[in-house]
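#struct-help
A.M.: can someone run this one for me? Single chain, 494 residues.
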Amino acid sequence: MGATRYEENELTERTVSLDGPEGLSSGADAQLKGESIATRHIVASVIAAAAPIAGIVGLVPLAILLGNGVGTPGAILLIAMLLVLFSVGFVRIVPHVRNAGAFYAYVSQGIGKATGLGTAYVLTLSYIALSIGVVGGFGFFGQELLHRVGIDIPWIWCAVFGILAATALSISGIQVAARVLLAILVLETLALLVMDVGILAQVGLGAFSFDAFNPNVVFSGAIGVAAIYGFSCFLGFEGTAIYAEEAKDANQAVPKATYIVIVLVGLFYGLSAWVLIAGAGFDQAVGRSGEDPGLFVYGLAEQYVGSGLSNVIGTLNIVSLFAGALAFQNAGARYLFALGRDGVLPNQFAHTSPRLGSPIPALLVVGGLALVVTVAFYAAGQDPFVGLSTTMTGFGTIGLIASLTVTSFAIGIFFFRRGERTVAKVGAPILAGVLLAACAVAGIVNYDALAGSESSMTWLPVMHVVMFAGGIAFAIWSRTKKRSTYENLGTTRV
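D.P.: on it. Structure tokens below:
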């Protein structure tokens, strides 16, 4: 049976099969395992990608120190509101365009195949960079944790273990991975709730100043830096759509999971940041975070609850980073899978395990790239946190924000061309696109703060431009030289 294809910017819903076109993989091994993931598993996978404890330990203190100070909780709330605005259009396009390379497909159908492929290149690079960045943190904090118990080994061994373990668990099937992520998430939440309650019980409600949400405070200081660190707290939220092909009742599961993720992550980080500021003292929070950002949360946990909780948070921080690496590796692999299925990458990337349903070749490539880059940074004598983790995390964050910007505009254009010109389907996505573009610019301008002041790789965001241009160039080339591949770029599969 031949495949039905989209022509350039065609907006009629169609079903695209996986056999027939040149460059596409044929057979059952080119399909992800459908109807296999419940809403709760999607939520767990995506929230775990934000690495809750790792975010509280690493991102919030830096946002307080380098961003807008005690206005950090308000900044996180604003980012959550922006993402809700984006999601208004986002959840409405899922029933029309269902694909493991979600944003790639949305942009292809909304703006055009060339722009869609450029966006896919940027997204794939961003997810792989984020998985590497999280592995760097895993190596750094893993080495520190082992040192506390009298074991001294180079951080590279911890990082390599993290890469191999994440790859093996991902290959075992997304259901297994989702269950592990859910268990990790519960433990992280409990530990942070104990700390939050401990601080609240001792400082009292009077220490919680609502000035943290006062616009004059929120927009003070380096609000651009605060916005980027705030956005980093939500990294991976867009992963809800990536699992649309594997979700049970995706038309309901994806929208529900998206809103649940944004609300839970926003409340989690916003309230925790507010508690940390109250615990440190509204007037002393910036100063205390500056003494040693990495120990800021540990110090407060020990001060208000005890060293036992501080050690537990330290351990769960490692687990949280591993969960993030696992989630980002799965996301990156699914984009490689989508590109392989569309004939942009070698056909092997579109293969999945008949028994497990996981895209094994794509997962192995992501794991292999992480291993090569991590070893290269170690061989160059780079610090795993400043030289690897913060650099790659900042790089990936900027790429994701830029991709969200293009996707938001694409969603608005998609519905506009269909004649569905409502506020929810056109107005909200376009407005969200403008605001996301401002965040992307802030990320590029403030990349030094994201990568670390000692980083020698401040040029790295240029790679996103190169990848985007490369995707567009390949699409233009394939339009005349390899038409069958071009016609299947970003095609819908339901």
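A.M.: thanks! Confidence is low (pLDDT under 50) at residues 1-30.
D.P.: also worth noting: Residues 162 and 322 are 6 Å apart (CA to CA).
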